[in-house]
Write the structure tokens for this entry.
Amino acid sequence: MSEENNNKTHPSWMDDELVRDIPKRKLDFLGQLFADGHGKSQKEMMAYMLPMMRRAKEEQLAFTSREMSAAIAAIKKHSTPEELSQIDKILSQSKQAAQQKGAPQ
């Protein structure tokens, strides 16, 4: 995330060979998710993640576990230590949001 490619149109992790088989629109969604989540508190992340999960569903963006693992590995590979900490926070919040969504009402 800290390294950008030459034309600055997207983060360098999107060019990593780990994600070469993931469709661009999925990579763009993940890029926005991680970029917009940067610096948010736990409460802000929860408020942010739920609409993003709905948006993914509306746009029929379903990620396989392989795609998610590859994207996360690529993002981490191109991140600073500070960004790695933020990524772990985002992933934790995403997991919590998914668990809340699946909880009985």
Notes: The chain has four helices and no strands.
